[in-house]
Amino acid sequence: MKIDLHVHSSERSPCARSREEEQIQAAIACGLDAMVFTDHGRLVPQTHLEALNQKYAPFRIFGGIEITVEEKEDVLVLGVHDPALESLQWTYPTLHTFVRERGGWIALAHPFRYHSDIVIDIAQYPPDALEGCSTNVAVLNQPRIREAAQQLGIPVVCNSDAHVTHSFGVGYNLLHEEPEDEAHLVRILRAGAFVGVCAII
Ligand SMILES: [Zn+2]
Ligand SMILES: [Zn+2]
User: Fold this and answer.
1) Distance, CA 128 to ligand 2 centroid (Å)?
2) Number of domains in the chain
3) Helix (H) or strand (E) holding 66
């Protein structure tokens, strides 16, 4: 199963240019089997997610979130639907603990995008993955990201970070098994049972 873990929609992300359904159709046209909406500070309401899944089956749509921590780095979260994710100002250690306690998945989006170093404490609080490829990962930073992930013993995920339909296909992840549900997807990701595929290297 090919899954893009980092996608935006204009309904929930002001910086996105394409609507939710345009993004889903573009992902399907690109040959993906599944995607995760990770809008900035906004979750997809559960009933809406169910309706989208019914409409586009067998294509799968999951609901995550992208959160800016300490005004420094962006973090992707999957598997937690607590509205506190949307409402609180998060520090990275607090968010990490919150997600861990609830059995979720947490990854650092586009490392080195805003700073020449990773400026949150990933040594003390290792995420489940680093994003090693997306439209917002500079090609010259990809080796550093892989190296940092290797040091932490965590995998690299490849995504689109699509804010517009034509960004799909930049990166995706080939899962070793088909997730039955969101909790299963989180287990697969946390176990590193996938291969990240990047089209821009
Ligand atoms: Zn954005
Ligand atoms: Zn993003």
Assistant:
1) 17
2) 1
3) strand 60-69
Residue 94 backbone phi and psi in degrees, to 5: -65, -45
Centre of ligand 1 to C-alpha 192, Å, is 26
Ligand approaching nearest to the C-alpha of 164: 1
Question: Residue 194 belongs to a domain with what CATH number?
Answer: 3.20.20.140
* Host domain of residue 106: 2-198
Taking only the tens place, the pLDDT of each residue in 136-192 is 999 999 999 999 999 999 999 999 999 999 999 999 999 999 999 999 999 999 999
Percent of the chain topping pLDDT 70: 100
Tell me the three state secondary structure of residue 81: coil
Which ligand gives the minimal distance to the CA of 4? 2
Helix ranges (DSSP H) in 57-107: 84-87, 92-101
Query: Can you read off the two tokens belonging to residue 92?
Result: 């990275």
